[in-house]
Every structure is written in structure tokens, then in C-alpha cells.
């Protein structure tokens, strides 16, 4: 019998159960979710897509991700920062993305804030990774009840507050915890998942920016 939150496939490998929920999930779960990221553009993309997810299922965003990348020019935040009303209308008429005006405007706003932050500090990645929780703050084993409950953490609360203070939007503490999971700042593959040890190895080898 599978443990709560885990499932075993036909090959006998055990993974987080959500991996089996959609055809796009195995690759994302196995090769991307939790892998440490230090590239500014990739991090800006993750922040924006987690913001677009608010109130929606992640699979909806994942299915549309390639078109999001086309629509927002690869999430090059210096390009997106130049967008104006005509671009908002273009994006609102793009059926390949989530056509939510507030989230589109937020993506443009956050691009401008990213430019400011990079100009001030030199690196979006270095600034964000400064919020990584210490070993004492991270649980040794992920609690399934916590993992499924739209979690936040002291670190995600701090990151959310710091970004909001700088004028970012759609960066609430739950959204920022999802970012931390996705970018490898925490390893929330459940104990027993075949990917958990690999992600821990990647985190140990990762050179923080």
C-alpha cells in the first residue's frame, strides 16, 4: 500500500503522488521541481508564473508555459519592463496564456521592480537566495499534512514582505513558498520519493549566488 502522498509506478519507483496527476507532471517533477536555480531570468519567470497560478491549478500554467514564454519574450524582465498599454491589450487577446489583466499588469510591474533590484544589488538571484531558511528552520522530513495545506513558512513570509515593500505584486507568502519549492530553496519531495535524495545532492553541490 502506498504511503500518504506517495505512489509507486509500474517500474516499482515511488514518487510524490501528484506526479501521476497529469501527463506533463512526470518530467516537471523529476527534472525541474526542486532543482536549485540561480539565473535571474529563470527566477523572474518562476515568480510570474507562480503569481499567474494564484486561484488556479498549477497544471493549467504548466500547459501554457511555452506560450507564456513566447508572449513575454522569454521573460526577459528588461524587455517586459518596457511594455505599455498596447502590450497589455496584445496579451489580453492571446488565448495561449491566462488572460487576467491584473496578473498581466503585475508581470509588467514586477519586471520594472526586478530591474530596480538588479540595478541596486547586482543580482535578483543573490537577493532572493538570501532568504533561504537555515538547516534549523527546515524540517528533516516533510510533513504531508503541512505539505498539502497551502503552506507558508517564516522564510516565505519574510520574502513576501520584502518584495511587497519594494512594490512587487502577486507575491503573497503562499505564492512565495511555492516559488521556494520550485526553485530548490527547500526540498519538498516527500520522504520516500525517489527524487528527494537527488534533490538534496543537488542542493549540497549548488553554489549559492
Automatic annotation (TrEMBL):
The keyword Zinc applies. The keyword S-adenosyl-L-methionine does not apply. One of its GO terms (biological process) is base-excision repair. Keywords: Glycosidase, Hydrolase, Metal-binding, Zinc. It comes from the Bacteria. SUPFAM superfamilies: DNA-glycosylase (SSF48150). One of its GO terms (molecular function) is metal ion binding. Zn(2+) binds at residues 16, 29, 189, 193. Pfam families: Adenine_glyco. Its EC number is 3.2.2.20. This is DNA-3-methyladenine glycosylase 1. The gene is tag_3.
Amino acid at each position: 500500500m502506498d504511503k500518504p502522498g506517495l505512489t509507486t509506478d509500474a517500474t516499482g519507483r515511488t514518487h510524490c503522488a501528484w506526479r501521476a496527476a497529469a501527463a506533463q507532471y512526470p518530467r516537471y517533477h523529476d527534472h525541474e521541481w526542486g532543482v536549485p536555480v540561480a539565473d535571474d531570468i529563470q527566477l523572474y519567470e518562476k515568480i510570474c508564473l507562480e503569481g499567474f497560478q494564484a486561484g488556479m491549478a498549477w497544471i493549467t500554467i504548466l500547459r501554457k508555459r511555452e506560450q507564456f514564454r513566447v508572449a513575454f519574450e522569454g521573460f526577459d524582465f528588461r524587455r517586459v519592463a518596457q511594455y505599455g498599454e498596447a502590450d497589455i491589450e496584445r496579451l489580453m487577446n492571446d488565448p495561449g496564456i491566462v488572460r487576467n489583466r491584473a496578473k498581466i499588469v503585475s508581470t509588467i510591474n514586477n519586471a520594472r521592480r526586478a530591474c530596480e533590484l538588479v540595478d541596486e544589488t547586482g543580482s535578483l538571484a543573490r537577493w532572493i537566495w538570501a532568504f533561504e531558511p537555515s538547516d534549523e528552520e527546515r524540517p528533516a522530513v516533510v510533513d504531508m499534512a503541512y505539505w498539502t495545506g497551502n503552506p507558508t513558512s517564516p522564510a516565505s513570509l519574510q520574502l513576501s514582505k520584502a518584495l511587497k515593500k519594494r512594490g512587487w505584486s502577486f507575491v503573497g507568502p503562499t505564492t512565495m513558498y511555492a516559488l521556494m519549492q520550485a526553485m530548490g530553496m527547500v526540498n519538498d519531495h516527500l520522504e520516500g520519493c525517489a527524487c528527494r535524495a537527488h534533490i538534496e545532492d543537488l542542493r549540497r553541490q549548488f553554489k549559492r549566488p
